[in-house]
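Honest question from a wet-lab person: if I give you the sequences of every part of a complex, can you actually get the arrangement of the whole thing, not just the pieces? Trying it with mine:
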Amino acid sequence: MYLVTPERLEKMKRILQTRQNTLRVFMDYVYSHHNLSAIVRTCDAVNVGKLYYRHQKKVKLNNEITMGAHKWIFTEYVEDIEKFYQNIKSKGYQVVVTLLDKDTIDFREVDYTKPTLIVLGNEVDGASEVSIKYADKKVIIPMYGMSQSLNVSVANAVILYEAQRQRAAKGMYDKPSLPPEIIEKTLRKWAYEDIINKN
Ligand SMILES: C[S@@+](CC[C@H](N)C(=O)[O-])C[C@H]1O[C@@H](n2cnc3c(N)ncnc32)[C@H](O)[C@@H]1O
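Yes, you can. This is the full assembly:
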């Protein structure tokens, strides 16, 4: 039995049933808390399967940083980046690194309906050498003004909503991609935490 209201429970179920398990994001040393927060909120809005991150300081995503949005997405801190890439590639993910470079393709040329990891770089240095080494696709969002780059959280939103558009067109938001046991386990956790945090 769940102690949350039926409406709240329905909302939690809908989130888990539309979650895009095979669309994931990696923040490769994104530094500013403001950007971390904005990225987490867009990942929540598009309902990505998981958000990986590493940081100069081992920060824990918390309410102060994300205004609570991190609670509804699966997050994981990356300790060993080489192992992380080897593992995700062995699961069949394409690694799509966002980059400001000549050796890139337009971000709309990628098929995001495949299992995909989108990589976002640091505000000053961009994506790390290791991320570039593992890239299957290097993508750019075309820039026509004076600025050389977008804010990293804006770049994330632009790319994720292209992925969302492609996946919605393919009906990928219409059927669950998470295993039923994960949906059930997460529902119990969320419902429990919801009650605990209210009291
Ligand atoms: C401010 S930019 C980094 C600028 C850095 N000087 C460089 O040359 O990579 C921060 C991050 O935002 C993303 N980004 C910003 N504008 C982008 C664009 N036009 N195309 C692709 N990615 C972009 C990338 O993830 C980038 O690593």
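Two things worth pointing out. The pocket of S-adenosylmethionine is lined by residues 98-100, 120-121, 123-124, 126-127, 140-141, 143, 149-150, 152, 155 (CB under 6 Å). The radius of gyration is 17 Å.
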